[in-house]
Protein: SWIM-type domain-containing protein
Amino acid sequence: MKDISLDAYKWLHELEPYTWVRAFQSDLPNCDILLNNNCEVFNKYILDARELPILSMLERIKGQLMQRHYSKQLEAEKMKGNICPKIKKKVEKLTEWENLCYVDGAGDGVFQVGDRGVNFLVDWHTNECSCKRWQKGGTPCVHAIACARHERVDPLSLVNQCYSVNMFKMAYKNIIYPCRDMAEWEKMNGPPVLPPLYTKQVGRPCKSRRKARGEVICSNGGKKMSRHGVIMH
Structure:
């Protein structure tokens, strides 16, 4: 990286390793998402509500979340098995690759797994593999799945409980209660809170998000990070 971009090297060198190096990050989240897509999705989710006054905006967002919770409750009732469907498909996909691994048992839930010339250590007691994918993502890696097949154990039993159907139901079991109409709200003894004075700015209102430092727009419409040289669509 230093040879490619000295500025990028200096910038990363000033940051703490856990902010950008996966190896230094905690295993507690059990999530393998490395992108900022969740924030982008939420930003689009509330795009219409952001144009409203503060109370109307909060009411719109609350209504959207209330509908989402209800739809997830209905979705959870239709789930079969102990593991959520998407995670189940992910494990089944990895199962197709476990035949490339060779398992040697060491005893007491510890295994050595050979994968295309590289050896990995798998420990069932701590749910860890030396490839780090199991403890980082919460789902068994291909080496752990190979050990499960070797011991004739269902690979889905190695999935972290945070991906279970029961935990999914618990996440959406609470109800976001609807509110009465604003006209029926209780009047409080105090001065009314008025909106701030609004002065119309010259030109069209800006609705586009602020571009990050170093981000430029390509001629073909894609976004290019000048530091990395990777075009994103």
User: Anything to note?
Assistant: The mean pLDDT is 86. The radius of gyration is 25 Å. Residues 85-163 form one domain.
